[in-house]
Amino acid sequence: MKRSNTFFVCLLVLLTGFTASLVDVAIESGPARPQALESADLVSRLGLTDLSLFTEARYTRHPSQADIHSAFQDHPVALEHFPTGSLLQPPSGLLR
Amino acid sequence: MIALLRKQRYFIDYTLGTMMRHKGKSLGLLTVYTIIIFMLASVMLFSHAMRSEAVALLADSPEIVVQRIQAGRSVMVPADYLQRIGKLRGVTEKRGRLWGYYYDPAVKANYTVMASEQDQLSINDIVIGEGIARTRGLSIGDYLTLRSHEGKAFSFRVLRLLESESELISSDLLLMNPEGYRRLFGIDESLYTDLVLSVRNPREIQKIAEKLTLLLPDSRPILRTEILRTYESLFSWRQGVMLILLLGSVLAFVIFAWDKASGLSAEERKEIGILKAVGWETSEVMRMKFWEGVIISLMAFLIGYLAAYLHVFYTSAGLFEPVLKGWSVLYPSFQLTPSVDGLQLATLFFFTVLPYTLATIVPVWQTSITDPDLVMR
Fold first, then answer.
1. From B101, B234, B306, residue closest to A89, measured CB to CB
2. Distance between CA B257 and CA B33 in Å, rounded?
């Protein structure tokens, strides 16, 4: 087999994978999935406002409810020290 | 047309032959290039999917949440604030909420405790999220003991678990009866954590928020649009510690690729000289080098992107978990919905494939326009 043929076969396989990923996105983002419905029901029933992704501190658990001082209000001259603080950006109100 | 394609195929054959002669070097470059694209694409896909997921999940969050601020801190809201708000036009429902945090020293985790009237729980019953159940090893019918504000131990029976499908929003949730909540935390009947207002017409929300700040000067209304904006900007891919760390490795790769692509070795210069001497034209030498750049960068892009896609959407971004987890004990287990931003993907393509391909062509052009005899000496 010529080298170029091997290359074209590899390229074809990779391009098929690439197309499959885009098809996967189209299928998954189409009709509402049961897990999205479950979550939507819980959000509207309990009035939830945030993701339970960073549960280490108040202002990382509920970033949308935290005020602008919350990261520094543990005591006077307190510094923000939770690891998540380096991933989250400050509240949107500060950046406007 | 067929002759042109055949010619390009011969170029690719020759280029692959040259690359196979320097197998270690070519494979090393391809590996490093692929890893860089994998990391960049993973950050890009993860942050985009996370943002989309958050915005979709929180689309039904309350239109307006009213907090009370005292000396820069959120404090409990008196129940009579509901009366003070009175009848605002456009507000269809207003109610007080009770929620807060409970630190469980047994597992060193923070729970989000919420009073729920809709679940009609008895005073001794609770409903818990999957994260709490997993961490504490609880199942339906088990008892969870929490220490009250007075130090008394209260035992609650787990009535049911929140659906695991909703873990991204409910992993650390603990729902209980409002009276049980007040007893556990010692909160008076006349206080709420915050107030929630439902507004029928979204265009009226801003106006209602303005009226609220006039009626209750110590209040802070948080609008649904602000909640969604917070999550839209939360994982902006231009920021965050992950990208800063990545930037170092990207710069290292740029230097490496630039050195490899732009600085031709004596052997490569000699090869170009021989090709010119046997009758190759400058454009043909450049085309051969162009294919070398395309083969390396295109393969690296496709392999890196596909690996990143599988990593983010089918292994729950396992490599990022330690970074995202931080000190969170109740990290949810969740599967992101596949979503790709076409513009971001195109940006990644143009910033990775094009510069390398161009960087390979320029030095070849400089060498191939000089006299073959001079190059071979």
1. B234
2. 8
Please state the domain extents for chain A. Answer: 50-96
**Cβ distance of B330 and A52 shorter than 8 Å:** yes
Question: Closest Cα partner for B228 from A49, A45, A22?
Answer: A49
What is the least distance, in Å, from the CA of B137 to any CA of chain A?
Answer: 18
Within 155-214 of B, beta carbons closer than 8 Å to A belong to: 162-163, 165-173, 175, 194, 196
Among A14, A19, A35, A52, most B C-beta atoms within 10 A, so best to mutate, is A52
Query: What phi and psi values does residue B225 have, to the nearest 5 degrees?
Result: -60, -35
Other Cβ atoms less than 10 A from the Cβ of B159: the count is: 17
For every one of its 377 residues, what pLDDT tens digit does chain B have, with 9 covering 90 and above? 788 888 888 888 888 888 888 888 889 889 988 998 998 899 889 888 888 888 888 888 999 999 998 888 889 999 999 888 888 888 888 999 999 999 998 888 889 999 998 888 899 999 999 999 999 999 999 999 999 999 999 999 999 999 888 888 899 999 999 999 999 999 999 999 999 999 988 888 999 999 999 999 999 999 998 888 888 777 765 556 667 767 777 787 778 777 766 666 777 778 878 888 888 888 888 888 888 888 999 999 999 999 999 999 999 888 888 777 777 778 888 888 888 988 989 988 988 888 888 777 777 777 777 776 666 66
Query: What domains lie within chain B, and their CATH numbers?
Result: 2-58+235-376 (no CATH), 62-224 (2.40.40.20)
Here the ipTM equals: 0.81
Residue B339 Cα distances to A25, A45, A92, B46, B343, angstroms:
5, 27, 24, 9, 12
* Interchain pair A89, B114: CB under 8 A: no
